[in-house]
Amino acid sequence: MKIKVLEDILEANDHIALQNRSLFDKSRVLVLNLMSAPGSGKTTLLETTIKSLGKEYKIGVIEGDIETTRDAERMEKLEIPIVQINTKSVCHLDASMIKGVIDDLPLEELDFLFIENVGNLVCPAEFKVGEHHKVMLLSVTEGDDKPLKYPLMFRESSVMLINKIDLLPYTDFSMESAKANARQINPQLEIIELSCRTDEGLSRWLDWLRGNLIS
Ligand code: MG
Ligand code: ZN
Q1: Ligand 2 center to 78 CA (angstroms)
Q2: Mean of per-residue pLDDT scores for the chain
Q3: What is the pLDDT of residues 105-163, one digit of tens each?
Q4: Which ligand is located closest to the Cα atom of residue 116?
Q5: Which of 40, 43, 137, 146 is the 20 to 30 Å CA partner of 173?
């Protein structure tokens, strides 16, 4: 019984996600759904990315947070179009939440729209929001076995960014195992190692973004 209810919820969500997606396609804006555990560096990645690409491209952001507007306030300093969604105890964004704020963004003008999902490795992966790609962050301060523990997110993502590589010498994180575990779940997964603190590896991520632009 419970399973049937969840199926219905996901089906209704997928339907709205398709509507969002067709609007994104029509507006020729590349939409990326950014997901990770809390504290992996999603907001910092966005700040770094926007500082690097903001002069070349028009970028918008949707910030998902359970309660506060702290991340959105950080982002506002970059003077880009940004909307905030407070999910009020819901631990993921869904397609109808995104649909509800789309009109507040100048979609037609944007090249990229980043959606920062709620920090959570489980259900954000289940709810499509109309994105072109799911991008996930795994930081080296987390376990290199996370792909095995939370396979759905790794399976659904196009790219995995392994963040905070400047901290590698201080952790027991095995880059080799992390990559092997992730590729076991998703052989097509693009993996990029980077540090948003030192900018090491950042250019590969920026190249990936440029390469996926909708022309
Ligand atoms: Mg954040
Ligand atoms: Zn959730």
Answers
A1: 29
A2: 95
A3: 999 999 999 999 999 999 999 999 999 999 999 999 999 999 999 999 999 999 999 99
A4: 1
A5: 43
The token duo for 131 is 């994105």
* Rounded Cα gap, residues 195 and 183, in angstroms: 21
Report how far residue 113's alpha carbon sits from residue 34's, in angstroms, rounded to the nearest whole number.
10
* Statement: residue 5 has pLDDT above 90: no
Contacts of 57 (CB under 8 A, 6+ apart): 111, 112, 213
Phi, psi of 31 (to 5 degrees): -110, 125
Domain edges within the chain: 2-211
Pick from 95, 156, 167, 84: nearest CA to 121: 156
Q: Which ligand is nearest to the CA of 92?
A: 2
CATH class of 2-211: alpha beta
Ligand closest to CA 45: 1
Q: Nearest ligand to the C-alpha of residue 137?
A: 1
For residue 122, how far is its CA from the centre of ligand 2 (angstroms)?
Answer: 7
Burial tier of 50 (Cβ tally within 10 Å: 0-12, 13-18, 19+): buried
For the segment 73-85, the average pLDDT, to the nearest whole number, is 90
Residue 66 Cα to ligand 2 midpoint, Å, equals 10
Quote the pLDDT of residue 1.
Answer: 59
